[in-house]
Amino acid sequence: MFAHPLGPTHERLDGFVDEFDSFISFASSTLRFGLLVMLGVVRFAPLVVLRRLSTFEGLSLEDRVRVIERMAASRVIGLALVLVAYKAIFSLLFFEHDEELAALGYKNERHRHEGVPRLALAADAGEVAE
Amino acid sequence: MIGAVVRGREADSPFSDRADVIVVGSGAGGAVAARELASEGRSVIVVEEGGYWGPEQYSVMTPSNMFRRMAREAALGTAVGIGDTPLIAVLAGKCVGGSSVLTGGVCFRIPEQVLVQWVRELGLAHMSPDALEPHFAAVERAMDVETVPAHMRSRSTELFVEGAAKLGIRMKPLRRNTRGCKGAARCNFGCPHFAKMSVDVSYLPEACAHGARILSDALVERILFTGRRATGVEGRFLDETGEPRVKFRIAADVVVVACGALHTPLLLRRSGLRGRHLGRGLTLHPSVRVYGIFDERVDGWDGAFQSVYSDDFEHEGITLISAYGTPSLLAGGFPGVGREHRRFVHKIPNTAVFGAMIRDDGGGRVRRWISREPLVSYRLAARDGERMRRAMRILAEMAFAAGARQVILPVFGAPPVASTQELEALLARRPSLRRVECVAFHPLGSAKMSTDPSRGVVKPSGETWAADNLFVADGSVLPTSVGVNSQLPVMAVARQIARGIARAPRP
Predict the structure, then answer these.
(1) What is the rounded CA–CA span in Å between residue B411 and residue B413?
(2) What is the ipTM metric for this complex?
């Protein structure tokens, strides 16, 4: 999905995996389980899509792309939705990287903190409990 | 006394307290209720499941950081489509300020014809335009509702307007709750300039100034009763990832539930309330967006997030509305895989985004599920499905009229179209609505207001039919879809309910 002329660096990909893990840790256990099931579907999709005895990670980059393209166009809408879910999360995490935003010419706006009505923060819960 | 936020995640021992009123939820409905009741001299504790993030953090958190910390299910929540219905992504806030922190800030009053229907067909006499007028006016004043000036429009919005003009569609400026918007188009992630008057920077500070206290990271597990009478709540404080920690228990004379239309029915059910209508009749305002790719550089992020709309198709249940998003949010909507996807993403600077929203029938249902989050199912009415197809056609035609070279419809697996002929060919195949990329921001109506206990969950006063001194003051109570952005309607109705509680004799 993130094929790059030179490919993302290993560090970037490692960081991406950590980001993904951190991101979904805030979702409910049900949703995380659903994502895990979806990942299983992608993993074993080559068996059905390419009729090849291989897991997804065992395929060449070109074949991975073929599998995903066929899943996206599949009449079985559930297969397409699996990809849509992962594509949305991956895109959100991958394309917010400074490098990607700079390539798009996205300008990060300036921030102003003055004059904002602030909620006071109690020192700790005990302060209110007493 | 000036109240404050207490971060429940920092509490390390069980907590108990008492107040005149407990408000469960600090979003648009809960914040208004808290402020109105605190200003009338009631002691108020607001209990919020989400965390408190100071507004200065909105500018330094990335979109994904905002979503994981401030949105339910890290913004991955969905309504499961039944029949020919898309899987609908439903964005809802889970933080101090609730969804108001994550909205575009668009403010519409409830259309008059909707209110007239509520009065004439549902007998809700207190929902007449005249009766709600003072509540709308008060909320608009408190939130700085202003018309978005033309100079704040992004190029994406200008193209939206140009395309509409060529097709004879009239556009109108939107009103939003902003004070000094800088046009960063990041409203969905908390305003980095504090210009959006979300309730965490408007109503809640005022509530605290009147003595209200806010407990964040505090999940209410159930409402406590003595006989039919609500007498408090109990629950647990949560850590940063939402794992339960120590218990809390708060007694009160009145409990106001304002968890939003997805969670209010769940809390009421967990607390023992039953009823055929509880959790049913959910409306979502399903929305679609179409991408137009232009030769010119658009940089749609440079301008107000939303600034114009058209009600020319209101009679068909469709509102056209401009919107944009950050590149990372838009990227997922582009077709292709690998290099092809990346090529499309690199066209984001040349992309304009056109949006539309459907006024839907109440085809949704909220149920308890394995985790704390609900199972939301939704069946799109046949009429609403046709509205969705019609909306996609109108938006695509507008994009071509504005000069788009390619148009990307929100249909999974569909290739971009380069002409109106290709558009016709694609739409003629009537792609399944299950393949449509659809989002919703306005869950409403899952605990409806009614004049009869057999037809709804709460009385016109907002008090539940099933329990005394237990009120609902959020979007759940709206009896039908309103067809417009729901923040202002929710706040006005919550204000009306809160004023009613304040006027009633203390228990």
Answers:
(1) 6
(2) 0.89
